[in-house]
Amino acid sequence: MIPMDNVPEHVDQPLLIRVQGSHREIGRQIGESCRDKVQRSIQNGRQLIESAEEILELNWDGAQIQARKYLPFVQERYPQYVDELYGIAEGANASFDDLVVLNALEAVTSDALHLTKCTSMAVSDDVTADGHVLAAHNEDWLPEDEEDVYLVHASPDDEPPFLAMTYGGLLPNVGFNGYGISQFCDTVYPNDCRIGIPRIFVSRSVLAARTPKEAINRALVSQRAAGYNHLIAHESGEIYNLEVSAKKFALLYAQEGFLAHTNFYLDANMQALEYDPDERIGTRLRYYRAFRLLKNTQLHSIKSLQSIQRDHINHPNSICNHLEPDMEPLDREKTINAMVIDLTARVMHFVWGNPCKNPYHAYYLDA
Known about the structure:
This protein has 12 helices and 14 strands. The protein is α+β, with helices and mostly antiparallel strands. It has a domain at 114-364: Penicillin V Acylase, Chain A (4-Layer Sandwich). The longest helix is centred in the N-terminal third of the chain and has 18 residues, at 60-77. The model has no long low-confidence stretch (mean pLDDT 94).
């Protein structure tokens, strides 16, 4: 049985905030508009670390010490995004050191968070009913952070405008920009992690890309601490999975007009770097399910991708992920939001919470 009684239903639309100006000003506006969400996400992060202190051998003070080791790499390469984080801290009356921990949490915990249920997909104009380029993503994360989901419509002074999802005190990095580039991130688990630039800062920079090549280059910045899979789609119909570790990468192309990805490496060379692949069986099943559903639909639409996002086959390893009772603190996750982006129309169809129980709302990028 799929547990439906504990699935939050969101009557209201998710918060959308509009921000503009310098990176410091953008961060400050985010912090002021989302003060409660930012502060609560810090408390959630602290409680997570404390609940798993014996496993992690780490408390919050230690997490701050560990996070500071990563900060110089970010300051050297991305001072503008450090400014954004300072701005969020100022606007939310929050500790900057706490926000650094949140934005480097995967690195600080040495990937002990076993979050393996995100699903990303994209289809080109060759395989859609209206000739539009579509991209879709289920964001699976800690259930405590669902309350703090919001959308950011940003117009930086020196970068393209973008529309992105985030939650709490995390920098926005999942969405699309005014140059018709979308990015979705799926956590993968390489064994070559190191102290360097944390994943979120790298993916934040991809939202500033003006071409697919620039997006790929930004995801492959030197001195990265680890890597995501970046599903990068462009309004031209070019679609790529960029599988990244700290030192290596693989670029996969949408040969048949579509791609899907979950939380394991598809490329054989990258699989050799995968940490504990035996623990990733569920995410493999979910990938093959998404791949089959994409392949078996002749012409896709926004509704066909939304239908895939609601799929419960192989539960609890289903695309629409529900919280399971009695899970260990580091294993707890669920689908906290989902989106389908129409890059041709520059619109995001966004659902807050599980897509099987909540409605989609349309948000446009004014560029």
